[in-house]
Design a protein that fits this description.
Shape: globular
Radius of gyration: 21 Å
Order of helices and strands: HHHHHHHHHHHHH
Low-confidence stretches: 1-6
């Protein structure tokens, strides 16, 4: 693996300052950059880092099963380690120009593996240690399933809005924004025979993108209008105007990702009430998700109307 002739600077490994969170900038990104530099030197690929993060994150989840604060602290450090790897894989990909759809899918799945392990650990732990949940074991499982489904929606929406914002900053090259229409064409062009895993991966990714589009009808209308009016050459004036309105919402996409979620998890563990984490996802993060969607959809509707009125 080779890095460009000029030394890649730390800032070059970030997606954009608009979409970075303070905790990431102060903690995870610098650590991720160090991991990325080391891995580039020894020839480790981004996907290998992602897979390693899966194992570390699942190990963290196992530690949360035990009703022992010191073991929980070990789990906390493992989860932080896993997330530093999750940061490093993207930074390494940008550093070495090793982009791939498989890498994007693996990156998204890594967090799912961590939290599935965490959900199971909390459920088994609560039912074993709580008098109430021990007498009604189904309650915490219902909470876990509902929280997990909501988690998936929250993470998908946050990722989608972030990629849409990056599209207006960096264009296609700097964003991982996809469309079901485009993915369907690519999916149909690949045969199952001899391409089973690729075809299967494309199938799940296509459905993931379809779920993102269902959540954002006004955004899809704006995308279609922009395509009809400008093709791939969107005027800089429009890019700047949309970026200014979208930027304040980027903090919500970050809060719906890892850091706020992990802080709530750690607090629930220290309070010896890990089930509170499910309540946090169901109440606080869902309220944040609804607010973010409503605000972004209003922004998209406004710009679509302005395009139809000939403002741009």
């Amino acid at each position: 693996m080779k890095v460009n002739n000029q030394k890649v600077k730390y800032k070059d490994t970030l997606k954009s300052m608009d979409t970075e969170e303070t905790i990431d900038l102060l903690f995870y990104r610098p650590i991720g950059y160090m991991w990325a530099v080391l891995c580039a030197k020894v020839g480790i690929t981004p996907n290998v880092i992602t897979i390693a993060s899966i194992f570390i994150g699942v190990a963290a989840g196992v530690m949360f099963y035990f009703d022992d604060l010191w073991l929980n602290v070990i789990g906390i450090f493992l989860l932080i380690w896993a997330n530093s790897f999750d940061s490093a894989d993207g930074q390494l990909a940008r550093m070495t120009k090793q982009y791939s759809r498989l890498g994007r899918i693996l990156d998204g799945l890594s967090g799912d593996f961590w939290f599935v392990a965490i959900y199971f650990a909390i459920c088994f732990r609560v039912n074993a240690t709580s008098q109430f949940f021990g007498a009604h074991p189904w309650v915490v499982w219902v909470m876990a399933v509902a929280a997990g489904l909501c988690h998936a929606k929250q993470a998908a929406a946050a990722d989608y809005y972030r990629q849409f914002h990056l599209f207006f900053i960096k264009g296609k090259e700097g964003s991982e924004l996809d469309s079901v229409e485009q993915l369907d064409k690519q999916y149909a062009a690949v045969e199952w025979k001899g391409n089973f895993w690729k075809k299967l991966t494309m199938y799940f990714y296509r459905n993931y993108t379809a779920n993102q589009e269902v959540l954002t009808p006004r955004m899809q209308e704006l995308r279609r209008t922009l395509k009809q009016r400008f093709g791939d050459d969107i005027p800089q004036e429009f890019r700047d105007a949309f970026r200014a309105k979208s930027k304040p919402l980027m903090k919500y996409t970050n809060w719906l990702s890892f850091n706020l979620r992990s802080i709530a998890l750690f607090c629930s563990l220290f309070a010896l009430m890990p089930w509170l984490y499910f309540a946090f996802e169901l109440v606080v993060l869902n309220a944040m998700l609804v607010y973010m969607i409503l605000r972004h959809e209003r922004i998209c509707r406004r710009f679509t109307n302005e395009l139809n009125d000939g403002k741009y």
